[in-house]
Every structure is written in structure tokens, then in C-alpha cells.
């Protein structure tokens, strides 16, 4: 929320007020100060999110691993199929929840989602997650907001800056 306030403040600073009698030019120092504040607030938001994810994992008692991007994962049922590669077409069933366990979206094995790995218009974290899986695997993934729907959310059921939990079954890949 503080980021939104900073953006509004920055906009007011940059564009000023039409009824103001005294106008001043925005300097490079003004822009640098705004950028510094926005970066600091972004870091605080990221740290809060990491703490929320860590707390959620401890509460669930899931033995999760973490990738360098911050994706958390636990493959809790091993399949026997091939590992998914970039450009494969993956067929998945999934359940997406928030960290408070609110169900957002769900598919079934009867009506799986088709994803072209590395190319489809889905969350970055989903592309990364699928490439950790083999056909037949079932896994839980936690996508921090920067790998999920980011600052804006999905304009539907997922709010801005939300981490999401995917429970995925990789049905097939070709």
C-alpha cells in the first residue's frame, strides 16, 4: 500500500498542481529521492512476503526446496514420465490458493489446462515450476508475487502483491 502512496506522491510532485501560483522544476535530485523511496519500500514489501511464505510453510510442515528465483516447491508424488522441457506442451490439473488458503482457481484431470512451457501467457513461476516436474508428478509450489501476478494481481480473484500456492498434477507432456 505504501508503494501506491509513493506513486501518487510522485505523480503529484512531477505534474504539480494547475492552480498553484508557484511552479518549480523537478530536479534530478527529486527523481533520485523518489526512486530511492520506492526501492526501499519495494524491499520492505519483499521481506514481508518472504516472512509470510516462511510462516506458511512452517505451519503446513511442508519439506519445500527453493530455487534461485524464490520459487518454493515440494514434489510429493513422483511420476515415472519424462521431465518437462521448454517448448513442451504440458497438460496439468491444478488448484490455486492464497496463503490464507482461499481457493482462487481449480481445474480437473478431466478438463486439464494446456500450457506451452516457456511461451504461454501464464505466470513466470508456472513455467519454472513445470520444468521441475516429470509426467505423473504431483507437486506443491509457492510462487511469490514477482513470479505470480505481481503488483496488479489478476483483476479477478488474486489480489495485488499476493503469493499463490499451486497444487499441480502433471498429466502429460508432448
Domain unit count: 2
- For the record, the CATH class of the largest domain is Alpha Beta
Radius of gyration: 20 Å
Largest sheet: 7 strands, antiparallel
**Terminal-residue CA separation:** 43 Å
Silhouette: elongated
As an assembly, this protein is single chain
Write the CATH fold name of the largest domain: Chitinase A, domain 3
User: Can you write the helix and strand succession as a string?
Assistant: HHEEEEEHEE
Estimate what percentage of residues fall within beta strands: 15-25%
Explain how this protein is built.
The protein is an alpha+beta fold and 174 residues long. It folds into 2 domains: 2-59, no CATH class; 62-173, Chitinase A, domain 3 (Roll), CATH 3.10.50. Helix content is 31%, strand content 24%. The chain has 3 helices and 7 strands, in the order ααβββββαββ. Strands 1, 2, 3, 4, 5, 6 and 7 form a 7-stranded antiparallel beta sheet that branches. Helix 1 (2-15) runs antiparallel to helix 2 (28-60).
Write a brief structural summary:
The protein has 174 residues and is α+β, with helices and mostly antiparallel strands.
Helix and strand layout, with pairings?
Elements: H1 2-15, H2 28-60, E1 65-66, E2 72-77, E3 89-98, E4 103-106, E5 113-116, H3 124-130, E6 138-143, E7 164-173
Antiparallel strand pairs: 1-2, 2-6, 3-4, 3-5, 3-7, 6-7
Helix pairs in contact: 1-2
